[in-house]
Amino acid sequence: MDILLELNKDLIKLCFAGSTARQDAFNIKKYLSYINELGEKAAIFSSLESKLLSVINEDTSFSENIIESLTILNSILKIQGNIEEKDFDKEIEFSNKGSKIQSISCVKLNIVRDNLLFNPNGFGKDIIDIYNLNMHNDIRLYKAYCESISDYSTVISNYVENVIIPSIGEDIVPFIIDSIDVKGTKKDAKLFKLLYRIINEKIVPLSLKIAKEGHGILLAEALYTLDKGKEYEDILLFYAKKGKAEVRRSSFTSLIKIESSEGEDLLIKGLKKIKLGHLYEAIGCTNSSKIIKSVLDEIEYYRNNMDIKYNAKIKGLLEAITKNNNKTILSFIELIFKNKKHYKNILNVFTEKQILCNLQDQKTKEVNEFLYNISKENEDLIEFKVRMIFRLFSDNECYKICTKLIEEKKEIYSFIKDSLMEKYNFNMIIDRRWIDLLLDANVKIDLEIFLLPDDEERWTRLLDLYVEDIKNGDKYFFHNFRYTNILAKAYKIGYSNADKYYNIFIEHGYDENSLQKDLKSFNVKINI
Amino acid sequence: MSVLEINYAKCKVQLKGIDISEKILHNIMLSGIHGIDKKSEELYKEQIKELGNYYISGIQKSFFDFISLCIESKNKENFYECTRSLSYIYALLKKSKKYIKDKMENKVLSDEIKKEMFNTSIEEQIGYSWKKSDLKKCNLYRENVELIQVAYKSFRDISSEKSIEEGILLNICTGEIYKTQGYKVYKPKSSLKEDMVLSILEVDRIYVFPGDKNPKVKIENFNYRRLRPLDLDNIKKHAKDDFSYVVKEAKSQIKDILKDKNPFYILKVFSIRKNKNNQLAIFDKNDNAILLKFESLRFLVESLKRVQLINQSLVCYFDYDIEENIFFGVPVAIINDENIISLFY
Asked: Are residues B326 and A82, on separate chains, in Cβ contact within 8 Å?
């Protein structure tokens, strides 16, 4: 058979060269005796032999004879192309569990796969569709899901990263591992983070491989995962000393988490430098009194020796320590607030509000009480006071305190709304008095999230407030979706007067075509 | 003008076109594939465009395909497909000439001509587009048919650069496998669930184009219905369990250069094994093997449960690889007791 394949190659060469290769045809002669032998067994070889002889001997129809020889030879090869059955001696191992396979039509599979792989900037509607129908968990799409994760932020990449892959879970793990290039960059780092979310500490072998071969942001992500014990301290120390900024940042953070004394010393030593962006995260999560004391000493030192070149450093250190839940730090902040004059230089770099903003993210009882006490007598910090009232008091007490503040002519409505959002997390089951209070005060943006669909009265009041804005010639009138958004939501919950407000919007100048078009973009169809 | 009536004037024009085609082919073969460069490509294309005046658009397209393949082959330095295309044109011109001459010799269509016309793609290969009315007259249609699309592929046509979509449809009652080409079988509308889910198409009428084992079809009026376990049983009944016969039949088709080079079959899988190179082969009850090559999703086979594949059915198309000199099947769908798993989309 190899001889026939060789002959095929030679004929293709002749075909490639055309009649100019007429003199090369004698090369074919060497095959004739072999073909002749085969001709005794099957007639088709005799036909091939006679055609080859024509190629060699005839001056006319040289090219035609080559083509005909090739056609016959290809027929022979195709008939004979067999495998050795005995070589296939191993049974394949099937899975006990079986994979997830959905009944998706192949056309839809094709569209979804193409969207994932070739349309990274698309809206991913088909992907969202299959997710909504709970048909996304299909092993045939796993590879495409992993490949759709991109370096930059796109609707599809984000949706797959945040919704699809986390909902699939462990089944997709081998595909993620397969997709990660240990020497890769941002995309691989995203996949690595996803993998870590699914398999937690089981990721360590891969992290160690990346620690050996990887670089940049992927290496940084891998080093974050080596924070479970001291056995990887050497690797972390190595990169804390010589890696790039992002690599050093994650090394220090992990070193602090494993309470490495060598890591702590290295960090303290590093505090003396001006640029220490790579240390802030580690400072934000340290429990080491030694480090905290050193950081506070550093801040104290620069309070007295303030130079503009230290601004970024002091700001960074304050930002880091105010994220740290530690009593010593709270006492230090209390000290700053009590001696504002004394800490004037520092508060110029990092304001009171910035300090409290950072602190309030911690949401512990201690911090809440600290923030409440520090803000309750200070008019400038009333937003923190309102937020802490919501965190520390019961609903009734909270309502009483807030209405009292309003009586005292304090402008706290938007803070109330923000606090409600934080406390009730977009849940509509809140005390209706809050909604009335805000509607009375003409606070409307985002308020609809608290409105029950059948609360027609309050929906009417809310829409009336928007109409007032339109009448007053709101500058955002045609420039954003504020009005269409609220009307679309009213339509979607089945508010009975939605059509009426549609007409009122138009009456007051909203262009009907653009209103219809805008509503369509919210998937609302108008039948007026 | 219907294909069923002999139009002598048209046949004469076609023969003239074939003569010109032969001259073009002769010139190409004289200069060889290496002679087709940017300059001669334009020249040839001009000549091939002329063929558009002779009712031989199929032949014309095969020339355009060849020229595009030549350019592509030169980049890849692999001339197998290119010479295959040349052999195809050569065989097509030879057969077309005889077919048209035979047609002209008779006042009415002889049985022999009818056999060629209805059992091969010759008319389409020359350039005739079958109309529904022709197919209806020739009884080339079936009514009340239930189909399922088991595979789908879109690919770029080499000469026109257009995207072509090909669907593989399975007739549940007869086990016949059809192709639809050039357009989607059904276009998914918005996010309707029936468009997303693998569903049975209940078709009022399908028109079957003359061709080989897997003819092209056109479907007319259809509704969706859910796939039921009984449908899967029905499909599996048509699976071939004698691979030696299948291989013989498939090889005899692909060895003919004018026939479809990738015939589709439904096969019953008795066992599946691998060799030391990790290649997979399926076996029938007599231990006849068919080597499998996957487009993608090979991993899926080993992620299935045994019951999902063994004693179940596999829809495959056959192909031949000249480099490795092997004949093999490419799985496009698994049909088991629970579902149809499309591997080709």
From this structure: yes
